[in-house]
Amino acid sequence: MLSTSARQGEQLVEDLLAFSRLGRHPLAKRLVKVAAVVRDVMRGLGAHEPTRWLQIHLAADLPDVNADPTLLRQVFENLLSNAFKFTQGRDPATITVGSEVRNDESVFFVRDNGAGFDMRYASRLFGVFQRLHTQEQFAGTGVGLSLVQRIINRHGGRIWAEAEVNKGATFFFTLGA
């Protein structure tokens, strides 16, 4: 059995490989049913913590998008796994996935009632190895949000976040035209 340090090292290597390969992965855009992707990711994440009290809200009107389905799934896997992680200790943990139209553009969001972060450090969120919480507080490699940003950028979109310490965070993104 691998030690915790060995598992963390292995995960870091996998995350860095995924990050480096992303630039070489050609986009294979097609029409993607976002709600189906989100439901599938949530089902998988929830299966890992079956006894946890989670209130999950999925907007009924999530628009379908023209995107690379594999990469879009990675976006939601990273954002939702972060929401699961950073709501540890919340009873109940509340996670909402939705969308809204701003300036004729679909804006998706993942919102939670978790640890949040200080907005003074928001510029560090998407940098490789830039963590706003300690490893002891929340496990992770510090690569996930960098990967998400890279995927969103490749689709011609943008990503940003809003948060408040101990009141949760919301990650917003667009996918471009």
Describe the structure.
This protein is α+β, with helices and mostly antiparallel strands. It has one domain (4-173): Heat Shock Protein 90, CATH 3.30.565. 36% of the residues lie in helices and 23% in strands. It is built from four helices and seven strands. It has helices at 4-22, 34-48, 69-86, 144-154; strands at 30-32, 54-58, 65-67, 93-102, 105-112, 159-164, 168-173. Strands 2-4-5-7-6 form a five-stranded mixed sheet. It has a two-stranded antiparallel ribbon with strand order 1-3. A hairpin with a 2-residue loop joins strand 4 (93-102) and strand 5 (105-112). Helix 2 (34-48) packs across helix 3. It is globular and about 40 Å long. 29% of the residues are buried.
Characterize the largest beta sheet: strand count, sense, and whether it forms a barrel.
5 strands, mixed
- The CATH topology corresponds to Heat Shock Protein 90
Total number of β-strand segments? 7
How many distinct domains? 1
Quaternary structure state of the chains depicted: single chain
CATH-level-4 superfamily name: Histidine kinase-like ATPase, C-terminal domain
pLDDT averaged over residues: 81
Low-confidence sequence ranges: 131-138
What shape does the CA trace take? globular
Cα-to-Cα separation, first versus last residue? 47 Å
Helix count from the secondary structure assignment: 4
Helix content: 25-40%
> What is the SS-derived class?
alpha+beta
| The CATH top-level class label | Alpha Beta
CATH architecture: 2-Layer Sandwich
